[in-house]
């Protein structure tokens, strides 16, 4: 049994197609198939049901693939450990980040990070939290930047900063006469929220303590905060915006922001990773770069009251 055979095994499980798996591993299909057949013979089990299209792992194959992912991950960790001991800051970080953070956070730190560490390659994918967690567990990502707490088994959370929520109103809205807003003042028929799957949607609904789905006057859900902001600007109503999303608003738009009364509702933003992840030095460097790029007051947990998911 070799590490290469286990990598082929994982590739077939990912692509569910021998040809595509071989292409992703930069080998010919006969080479990949031969190595997997050799592995099956050595183990004395059948790992894939080849009669199905797409191919699927057998029951025992599922368990062996899970173990293979751990072995391959640990083997790569040896190289990472050696590099760290030598003081070599290099490697690839595959990072997943949620859409309500990506447009407002990435530009604050990426350029400086890559200038400091030119031998580090940063591959960023935008996706919802559920997908970030799934890909972390499947070793398709190294790190995630999401809203926590998740309390997900096997996932380590490293909090970085805390974002307040602000109410954002359309021009001439009656609540603009208020300096601060109470949650009970928000009318559910006026509130624009993100579509299903976005954690910020869940936090907004949890905070407002209202059920929006199916309301006769509520018929639009956006996939981005920019979409919500544009709808508020163009039509009537309101939405909630996290703090970083408010920093680049125009002065006129900022005049239509209102804080909440008392301790501000807040979301916790963290780096998350698989507990077995071994690129600890890169995690520390990325963590430092992000927290230094964020306004100092946002790095304190006392910044507000964390709104949990429902």
Automatic annotation (TrEMBL):
CDD domains: PBP2_OxyR. Gene3D superfamilies: Periplasmic binding protein-like II, Winged helix-like DNA-binding domain superfamily/Winged helix DNA-binding domain. GO terms for cellular component: protein-DNA complex. Residues 1-58 form the HTH lysR-type domain. One of its GO terms (molecular function) is DNA-binding transcription factor activity. Coiled coil: none annotated. It holds the Pfam family HTH_1. Keywords: Activator, DNA-binding, Transcription, Transcription regulation. Belongs to the LysR transcriptional regulatory family. This is Hydrogen peroxide-inducible genes activator.
